[in-house]
Amino acid sequence: MSEKRSKQQSWEERYAGENYLFGTEPNDFLAEEAARLVPGQRALAVADGEGRNGVWLAGKGLDVLSVDFSANALVKARALAAERGLTIKTEQADLFAWDWPVAAFDLAVAFFIQPGRAQQRILFAAMLAALKPGGMLIFEAHAKAQAASEFGGPDNPDHLYSAATVREALAGVEAEIVILEEKTIIRRGGRHPGKPAAVVRLIARRSV
After folding, report:
1. What is the dihedral of CA 31, 34, 36, 41, to 10 degrees?
2. Can you state the angle between helices 52-59 and 71-83, rounded to 10 degrees?
3. How is domain 3-206 classified at the CATH fold level?
4. pLDDT (tens digit, 0 to 9) for every residue of the chain, 208 residues total?
5. Among 24, 57, 77, 183, which residue is least crowded by beta carbons within 10 Å?
6. Residues 187-194: contacts with CB within 8 Å, 24+ apart?
7. Taking a C-beta distance cutoff of 8 angstroms, is the pair 152, 192 a contact?
């Protein structure tokens, strides 16, 4: 079995159950930044899993494309949208092989995507290129301090972020950093509610 197929099978198995692995409420940081959203905006929910963020954005009046590696996850995303009387578009894709749209979205959101450092640069470039000029990226992921925690996050430190590595990954990308911070949060939802998490948070705006 090829590495890609093995990875695909792993994600399909992860999302095969009836329960929503990370719950159905949006990422805390996204919800906190709701005032930045404008109904009618076109939004890209990157690695959206079972749709908790994409569906929430649709509920705010945005036109959402939810992208994920797992077909099972996207089935559940569409079901969640239907349950709430909403519609989202979905596309199954490997983010590092996908033919990313260019200058197509007003907003991109991405949470806890934790590739290795070399791929982090590729990911940021692709997400920002997918935005129209003036479009906004809202991003959060585990920070390097999370390596000491038992409550989530990759074991490999190369897959964790810092404000410095995010700034480095954005070097050469035409984007204005609006917010870039490392902090410890207390999760309100997800797999470890009530537990601390070390995160990096970014809001960036495509400048041209």
Report:
1. 100
2. 30
3. Rossmann fold (3.40.50)
4. 556 667 778 889 888 888 998 999 999 999 999 999 999 999 999 999 999 999 999 999 999 999 999 999 999 999 999 999 999 999 999 999 999 999 999 999 999 999 999 999 999 999 999 999 999 999 999 999 898 887 778 889 999 999 999 999 998 888 999 999 999 998 887 776 788 999 999 999 999 7
5. 183
6. 187/28, 187/151, 188/25, 188/28, 189/22, 189/23, 189/25, 189/28, 190/22, 190/23, 190/152, 191/21, 191/22, 191/152, 192/151, 192/152
7. yes
Tokens of 94: 């490997």
d(CA 104, CA 43): 9
- Sequence spans of domains, the chain: 3-206
At 20, list the tokens. 């929503």
Rounded to the nearest 10 degrees, the angle between the axes of helix 3-14 and helix 71-83 is 30
Burial 94-120 (b: 16+ CB within 10 A, else e): ebeeeebbeeebbbbbbbbbbbeeebb
Q: Tokens 């470890």 appear where?
A: 192
